[in-house]
Each structure stands twice: as structure tokens, then as C-alpha cells.
Write a structure and sequence with these properties.
Length: 251
């Protein structure tokens, strides 16, 4: 089982959105997927409920929730042992806690979504530093997951500020406390996620692939062009491929 965990010490960066997008891409590909919601807002659990109500859910996606750090880790370990789920997506609250430490020990990839602004970038560096420092706290640092920042909510035509922040982020921002070499660069995924209305619709209505099918069924009565949904699903599909490639690379 591959485990992708969304972590950012700051709320509102896109953790739950990317979790929904990855689940949508997995479902559309026919991957056995599941999720764990560890945020007290229960964003992901509630989304699954809305999706089911709108008939845009897939019953074989298993959803779990807990606020308890040990229980969260045990859910992942148990599911891994059972072997029924191939891709497991974990959504977390926007802070740094014992929960995040424990989840990191059972994840394959930690994704830190950031929006292209200077303050988001510095929060991502803080989150990257947290993973970096964790190496000193675990018995076998080689077992720690890969870490990547994912730039989210980029306009289709990035503004000058966005472009500058992205360049700056790629250039030479270092992770580490400066005192303990070797320092490392903040690792950023080479694909940015666009700001899309389709992601807001996904939040209201469910899995992207199921929404596309529903739209097509309704098309006779009310014309709805599913192109925007298709573009979003294609973006998430590519994003999922990128994440899985990193997991394989760093295994
Ligand atoms: N790529 C995107 N396109 C459009 N809206 C987005 C995008 N990413 C996030 N949002 C919106 O931003 C808000 C915060 O995103 P969310 O995923 O809930 O963040 P987090 O889980 O990190 O707190 C939500 O209203 C969400 O719909
Ligand atoms: Mg969230």
C-alpha cells in the first residue's frame, strides 16, 4: 500500500483539495483507494458524504477518521497488512503535532501544498524543516518518507508576483537550521496545480470522474460541458503519476 499524507502547518493551502483530487484520479484509474481524515473539521469525511448523496461516490473507497495519533498510525499499519488498498490518502489538520510525527513514520510521501505567496513559501520551509529535523529523532532516517512541496492554486496566467515566488522557491531556498549541515533544497514538484472552479465543484459534488459521468447523463436535459471537469481530472491524473513515481524512486 502506498501512503500519501498531506501536511502543511498552515490551513487553507489545499491539503483537502489535493486529497480529493488524488482520490478522484485514483478512482478514475480503477486503483483501490482509501482515505483517512485526521482533521477535526472532517472535511474529507463530509465530502464523501456529499458525494454519496449526489451519487458521485465510489462505494469501494474506504474512508476512516480519527483524531487520535496512535490510532491514525495503527489504521495505516493495519490496512497495509490487510493489503486490500493500494493507495491511501491521509488528510491532516493545519498544525504540527505528534499526529504528524506518527503519520510521517508510516507514509511513503509527504506532500506540502503551498500557494504561490511568500508567506506560504516560508510555512512550507517550516514544514520541510520539521521533516528534516525528524531525521535526528528516529532510529532509521532512511525509513522516513519522501517530502515534496506542491504549488497549488496558480492562475492559468501566473501573475508577476506568483512567477517571482515560484522562481525564488526553486532557486536556492535551503532547508535545515543552518547549524547542522548538510543543508538541502526545498524540493518542489515540477507541476503546479491550477486554480480551478472544477475543484470547488468537486468539493460540493464528489469524485471528478463520477461527476463527468453524471454530467453526461444529464446532458440531454441541461447542457453542461464537462470539459472543465475533464481538464481538472487530467491535471490530477498527471499529479498522481508524479507522486507515484517519486514513491517508487525513493523506495
Ligand atoms: N487549486 C484550487 N482551485 C480552486 N480552489 C482551491 C484550490 N485549492 C484550494 N482551493 C480552495 O481553497 C480553500 C482551502 O482549501 P483546502 O483544500 O480546504 O485547504 P486545507 O485543507 O489545506 O485547509 C477551499 O475553499 C478550496 O476549495
Ligand atoms: Mg483541510
Amino acid at each position: 500500500m502506498r501512503v500519501i499524507t498531506l501536511i502543511n502547518q498552515k490551513g487553507g493551502a489545499g491539503k483537502s483539495t489535493i486529497a480529493r483530487g488524488l482520490l478522484s484520479a485514483a478512482e478514475a484509474r480503477g486503483i483501490n483507494a482509501g482515505f483517512l481524515d485526521t482533521d477535526k473539521t472532517e472535511n474529507l469525511v463530509q465530502w464523501a458524504g456529499r458525494a454519496a448523496e449526489a451519487d458521485n461516490w465510489a462505494e469501494d473507497i474506504a474512508g476512516f477518521k480519527t483524531l487520535n495519533p496512535e490510532e491514525a498510525r495503527d489504521i495505516v499499519l493495519d490496512l497495509d497488512e490487510e493489503g486490500d488498498i493500494d493507495l491511501f490518502i491521509v488528510d491532516t489538520p493545519g498544525d504540527a503535532s505528534e499526529l504528524h510525527d506518527l503519520l510521517a513514520t508510516v507514509s511513503d510521501l509527504v506532500l506540502c501544498p503551498i500557494q504561490p505567496s511568500t508567506s506560504d513559501l516560508s510555512t512550507a520551509i517550516g514544514t520541510a524543516n520539521w521533516m528534516y529535523r525528524m531525521r535526528a529523532r528516529v532510529d532509521d532516517p532512511s525509513q522516513l518518507p519522501a517530502f515534496r512541496a506542491a504549488i497549488n492554486r496558480v492562475g492559468s496566467k501566473p501573475t508577476k508576483t506568483e512567477a517571482r515566488v515560484m522562481l525564488y522557491a526553486r532557486a536556492n531556498k535551503l532547508v535545515g537550521d543552518g547549524a547542522a549541515p548538510p543543508e538541502e533544497k526545498l524540493r518542489i514538484l515540477p507541476r503546479y496545480i491550477q486554480q480551478r472552479d472544477a475543484y470547488r465543484r468537486m468539493d460540493e459534488e464528489g469524485l471528478l470522474g463520477r461527476m463527468i459521468s453524471s454530467d453526461q447523463r444529464r446532458k440531454e436535459q441541461f447542457f453542461k460541458n464537462p470539459k472543465h471537469l475533464r481538464d481538472a481530472l487530467a491535471e490530477m491524473d498527471e499529479f498522481l503519476s508524479l507522486c507515484l513515481a517519486i514513491v517508487e524512486e525513493e523506495k
